[in-house]
């Protein structure tokens, strides 16, 4: 319960920051990504401000043995640079530039009831589910490959993943 | 640079950094929105609770800001609804495959000097910029 209150407070602050920073105006996001046009550097300051505060306070908080309301810190420790990391971030960037929303501002913008925010969040959920389905199929194919003929199941996995990796491509081909 | 809002954007950034710190200090968690969203629907009930509370706070904060300054939610651009829908699918799939979005990698990860987050952030800014460039070219320079 107390963790819920802390998280609710953090959510409030986060939303206020996104809105004040201009992130809920997709035209500003597009303007930031428009390096070759009428560039709007505002988002540089959103990121710089957030990092300036959190980089310092992260160090301070990390000196504690544990968080105030939990046993341990859950902070990612991986340092390996992988293909999924780059591919996934690349796809995310395409969506970011195309729609001008990233997940946080998309969710916050739901309160407007506007069709852009509703469509964005719904299709973002769909994209997450597609990823999950592809993962499940990939795992299943991997198990099958262990038991039976390798080449056939590899094709199965490739078929299962192909349309999901690039939905636009799949649609235009279909 | 006519739309540049340096002070507001810096203030917004400070609030986001503060929010990430609150979540870390109290709950020991990283303020990555995409991870929180996915965790809310997929984690076990006791681990989903704080995530739903965070999302509720996000919406409550949004609603308060909407009541105060609706102009900060203006959607004024040339994107069509099908483009926004495609964008959502790319974002949803991409953040899961890439383990994070602007908040998790761009703010929290960079604050920890994570090499993974640096690569992720440079990558999504690069593909985002290319996408904006291509979209404008395709729409006849009207972006």
What does this structure look like?
The complex is a heterodimer of chains A (174) and B (143). Chain A has eight helices and no strands. Chain A is mainly α and 174 residues long. The longest helix of chain B has 24 residues, at 45-68. Chain B has a domain at 78-143. Chain B has helices spanning 6-27, 33-42, 45-68, 81-97, 102-111, 115-138. In chain B, helix 2 (33-42) crosses helix 3 (45-68). Chain B is mainly α and 143 residues long. Classes of the chains: A mainly alpha (174), B mainly alpha (143). Chains A and B meet through helix 1, helix 2, helix 3, helix 4 and helix 5 of A and helix 1, helix 2, helix 3, helix 4 and helix 5 of B.
As residue ranges, the low-confidence spans of chain A are 162-174
In whole angstroms, the N-to-C terminal distance of chain A is: 49 Å
Report the strand count of chain A: 0
Q: Kindly state the number of beta strands of chain B.
A: 0
Largest sheet of chain B: none
Query: Helical segment tally of chain B?
Result: 6
Spans where pLDDT lies below 50 across 5 or more residues of chain B: none
Mean pLDDT of chain A: 88
Instruction: Tell me the Rg of chain A in angstroms.
Output: 20 Å
Helix content of chain A: over 70%
Specify the number of helices of chain A: 8
Mean pLDDT of chain B: 94
Structural class of chain A: mainly alpha
Shape of chain B: globular
Radius of gyration of chain B from CA coordinates: 17 Å
Shape summary of chain A:
globular
Described by strand count, sense and barrel closure, the largest sheet of chain A is: none
Order of helices and strands of chain B: HHHHHH
Feature tags:
heterodimer, A: 174 residues, mainly alpha, 74% helix, globular, B: mainly alpha, 6 helices, 75% helix
SSE layout and pairings?
The complex is a heterodimer of chains A (174) and B (143).
Chain A: H1 2-21, H2 26-33, H3 42-62, H4 83-99, H5 103-108, H6 115-147, H7 150-165, H8 167-173
Chain B: H1 6-27, H2 33-42, H3 45-68, H4 81-97, H5 102-111, H6 115-138
Helix pairs in contact in B: 2-3, 5-6
């Amino acid at each position: 319960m107390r963790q819920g209150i802390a998280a609710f407070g953090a959510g409030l602050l986060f939303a206020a920051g996104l809105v004040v920073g201009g992130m809920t105006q997709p035209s500003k996001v597009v303007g930031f990504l428009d390096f070759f046009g009428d560039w709007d550097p505002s988002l540089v300051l959103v990121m710089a401000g957030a990092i300036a505060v959190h980089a310092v306070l992260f160090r301070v908080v990390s000196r504690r043995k544990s968080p105030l309301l939990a046993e341990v810190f859950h902070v990612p420790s991986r340092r390996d640079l992988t293909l999924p990391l780059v591919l996934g971030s690349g796809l995310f960037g395409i969506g970011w530039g195309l729609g001008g929303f990233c997940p946080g501002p998309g969710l916050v913008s739901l309160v407007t009831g506007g069709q852009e925010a509703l469509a964005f969040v719904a299709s973002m959920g769909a994209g997450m589910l597609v990823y999950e389905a592809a993962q499940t199929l990939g795992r299943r194919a991997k198990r099958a490959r262990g038991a039976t003929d390798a080449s056939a199941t590899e094709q199965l996995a490739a078929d299962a993943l192909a349309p999901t990796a690039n939905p636009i491509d799949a649609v235009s081909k279909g | 640079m006519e739309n540049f809002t340096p002070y507001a954007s810096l203030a917004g950034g400070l609030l986001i950094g503060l929010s990430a710190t609150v979540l870390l200090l109290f709950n020991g968690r990283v303020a990555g929105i995409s991870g929180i969203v996915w965790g809310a629907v997929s984690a076990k009930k006791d681990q989903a609770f704080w995530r739903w509370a965070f999302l509720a706070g996000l919406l409550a904060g949004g609603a308060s800001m909407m009541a105060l300054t609706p102009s900060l939610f203006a959607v004024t651009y040339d994107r069509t609804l099908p483009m926004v829908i495609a964008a959502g699918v790319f974002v949803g799939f991409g953040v899961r495959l890439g383990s994070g979005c602007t908040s998790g990698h761009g703010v929290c990860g960079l604050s920890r000097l994570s090499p993974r987050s640096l690569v992720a952030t440079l990558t999504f800014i690069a593909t985002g910029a290319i996408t904006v460039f291509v979209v404008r070219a395709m729409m006849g320079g009207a972006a």
